[in-house]
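Hi team,

As requested, here is the filled-out complex form for the carboxymethyl coenzyme *A run. I kept the field names the same as last time so the parser does not choke. Let me know if anything looks off before we queue the next batch.

— J.
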Amino acid sequence: MADTNTLKFGNHDYPVMSGSVGPQVVDIRKLYNETGMFTYDPGFTSTASCESALTYIDGDEGILLHRGYPIGQLAEQSSFMEVSYLLLNGELPSKGELDEFTHTITRHTMLHEQLATFYRGFRRDAHPMAIMCGVVGALSAFYHDSTDINDPHQRMIASHRLIAKMPTIAAMAYKYSVGQPFLYPDNSLSYTGNFLRMTFGVPAEPYEVNPIVERALDRIFILHADHEQNASTSTVRLAGSSGANPFACIAAGIACLWGPAHGGANEAALNMLREIGTPDRIPEFIARAKDKNDPFRLMGFGHRVYKNYDPRATVMQQTVREVFDALKVSDPVFEVALQLEHMALNDPYFVEKKLFPNVDFYSGVILSAIGFPTTMFTALFALARTVGWVAQWNEMISDPAQKIGRPRQLYTGPTQRDYTAIGQR
Ligand code: CMC
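And here is what came back:
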């Protein structure tokens, strides 16, 4: 919404807009036409790329709200299905609405049977994220009745399908890697319980879902559901801005999420904690993280937006204890994590740069205790983030101000020159 405030640049005034909360933004859409200049902002550190009513983050205060509700309250009191409904529809559901939504998602969990053969084209040691990129992108070849992005009904069906099928796709990627048969979904189980069974169950015997593990994983899904305009969400929006179908857009988001600076950080964080191994080696790794000549960084530390404790990390730390107690696990890696956090938070380098543990610092420890191999961690992140991606994608398509995303550049290459024949170079 436009304010009466303006920012003067040269002879031109640019409107200053206010959201419901958070920093104001300067509307520079006319800047190029009026001044012939672009703005320069690699990494979009000062650029709002869209209007959004989904998620709000105050990085200095460590606040994360979905549709206004604090993440801590959602993680403690809600369920992933309810948070998914909230993100997609804007309000918490009534009991009837939640039952109906859960029923719809549950009935979309099966995959087209032919997709099972698609998996067999991959090597057994393929990274699950490679499989997820391929299989999710391929969904558009199987579900033609939900690819018309101008039809809100088809958009909603595509959204439900993506949320529902992601656990099946991720579990099948795991099963394929260990050489076990794929398990069909069981509609009597919850969204998360079903995923646990499809991952760890075998056809030879019944699988009993551990309610504490189910609750912990559901909470991890809530914590990863959305995070405003992060790299993968912006990728989904950019891909979608050209009119690409929803399955292709989500596959693009999965590809972006895979990177170690984004979703791959939980895998990298656990690998790092295992490499450290014992608390006495922590100072050596802290010294490396501070050394400008060493590319090593403390994985699971620091965040583009949070300059305070990531509120999701607080919930994660509590959840580690619950899962360890329930499964009677004791993993030295948790002790290393706690001590590393303590030492880093008392080190001036990390204090001055406002580097705090992020959501990924503890999530790997929990997922490993549950039994997931590290390569599955980012696949789980993708599973949970799918609802955020589709909600943001739907919001973008419904936005009348939406245009194809097309950034400009500061060109520093050669100016025009004449082609020379190969023998004369
Ligand atoms: N260890 C050591 N130093 C760090 C770290 C770290 N983990 N993170 C940032 N720094 C330093 C960095 O060297 C730089 O120092 P200087 O100003 O002297 O050059 C300063 O802090 C600012 O870093 P930056 O890279 O400019 O900050 P950014 O906002 O571009 O990067 C980040 C954010 C998350 C990519 C970065 O903190 C990082 O690489 N962290 C490790 C990877 C990680 O845990 N990623 C998960 C993010 S949370 C999950 C998600 O939402 O996807």
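Two things worth flagging: The beta strands are 2-9, 12-17, 25-26, 55-58, 63-66, 69-70. The CA atoms of residues 379 and 391 lie 19 Å apart.

Thanks,
J.
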